[in-house]
Design brief:
Blueprint lengths: L2 E5 L6 H9 L6 E5 L4 H9 L6 E5 L5 H6 L4 E4 L15 H18 L4 E4 L4 H14 L8 E3 L2 H14 L13 E3 L6 E3 L14 H12 L1 H9 L7 H18 L5 E8 L4 H11 L5 E9 L2 E5 L7 H27 L2
Parallel strand pairs: 1-2, 1-4, 2-3, 4-5, 5-6
Antiparallel strand pairs: 7-8, 9-10, 10-11
This protein binds 1,4-dihydronicotinamide adenine dinucleotide (NAI).
Length: 333
């Protein structure tokens, strides 16, 4: 039995993500919440011949509470997306309040659920969820995740393009660490399961790193005002949600990079802080998942001097983003 809930289910990410969750035979209940259109989306998905019972909820009549009752997995893609020229941080003004209010609902109704935050800026919205949970006395850092999987998916795709063989894309594994915005996105290409071509020039490497860091901009530009990545994000969000579900069902050894509070694994978190030379409370690192959430936070392992420099360059922005999220909840107490 798994009850999954999508908050922001009628949106560009929410709809295809809900479709993918509906195809998962391990999900028995799928609740769709949004401020608009969920009855239609739910009715449509409910005709698909898979086990999940799909119900749509809107704000009236305690819709959020009803959607969240009994939830084990909550995914949040609610909020506004970027337009050309915007950074993820530009979304803070609107999305911070949306995420805070939804987190309050989860902390009250489903405090033990796994919470997967997609809404940007992830570097700030994850601390917002955590602070709300702390205020409500239900904070468990092992169960709150910032979804950075799209950066990992992009890295696999772009590396396979460089290797001239897209059929490799599903097999290419590149850890992407740090955070989820521009320079805070740090792909560890030296650890790629499929090494880059020998003699790959430094300029080419820099171009590839930049493409992974700013891949979202390619989509924002191509959509020309109509939003940011939705379909690839739904795919990535589902991939991460499915890892959580598999871990909950007892599968061992599932590891994925994700943006977490480093208190989720005291020992691993402290070791990582030493490794990156910072007292940051949040970082995206490879995390082992288990039935109760984070089992361990992994070391970044052996990285090149250039990658160490990228990690260092990510820290100031990450710090600012995290503090912004923390103080937003403090200020709105
Ligand atoms: P969208 O505008 O198509 O959909 C957002 C949905 O949220 C809408 O249906 C809207 O009605 C709903 N919503 C707004 N306020 C709400 C509330 N208080 N409660 C429930 N639902 C509410 O936007 P899209 O493209 O789906 O993007 C959603 C978010 O995901 C954005 O913040 C975007 O920046 C972020 N994103 C994150 C990525 C990541 O890698 N983590 C990648 C791409 C986008």
């Amino acid at each position: 039995m798994v009850k999954a809930v999508v908050l922001g289910a009628a949106g560009g990410i929410g709809q295809p993500l809900s479709l993918l969750l509906k195809t998962n035979p391990l999900i028995t209940e799928l609740s769709l919440y949004d401020i608009v259109n969920t009855p239609g989306v739910a009715a449509d998905l409910s005709h698909i011949a898979t086990p999940a019972k799909v119900v749509g909820y809107l704000p009236p009549d305690d819709g959020l509470k009803k959607a969240l009752t009994g939830a084990e997995l909550v995914v949040i893609p609610a909020g506004v997306p970027r337009k050309p020229g915007m950074t993820r941080d530009d979304l803070f003004k609107i999305n911070a309040g949306i995420v805070r209010d939804l987190a309050t609902g989860i902390a009250t109704t489903a405090p033990k659920a796994f919470v997967l935050v997609i809404s940007n800026p992830v570097n700030s919205t994850v601390p917002i969820v955590a602070e709300v949970f702390k205020q409500k006395g239900v904070f468990d850092p092992k169960k709150i995740f910032g979804v950075t999987t799209l950066d990992v998916v992009r890295a696999s795709t772009f590396v396979s393009e460089v290797l001239g063989d897209l059929s490799l894309a599903p097999k290419v594994v590149v850890p992407v660490v740090g955070g989820h915005s521009g320079v805070t996105i740090v792909p560890l290409l030296s650890q790629s399961s499929h090494p880059l071509p020998s003699g790959f020039a430094k300029e080419e490497l820099d171009k590839l790193i930049n493409r992974i860091q700013f891949g979202g901009d390619e989509v924002v530009k191509a959509k020309d005002g109509a939003g940011s990545a939705t379909l690839s994000m739904a795919y990535a969000g589902y991939e991460f949600a499915n890892k959580i579900i598999r871990a909950v069902k007892g599968e061992k050894g599932i590891i994925a990079p994700t943006f977490v509070n480093l208190a989720a694994d005291k020992e691993g978190g402290e070791a990582l802080k030493k490794e990156i030379g910072s007292d940051l409370d949040y970082f995206s690192a490879p995390v082992e998942l288990g039935p109760e959430g984070v089992v361990s936070i992994k070391s970044l392992g052996k990285i090149t001097d250039a990658e160490t420099a990228l990690v260092k360059a990510a820290i100031p922005e990450l710090k600012t983003n995290v503090e912004k999220g923390v103080s937003f909840v403090g200020a709105s107490k």
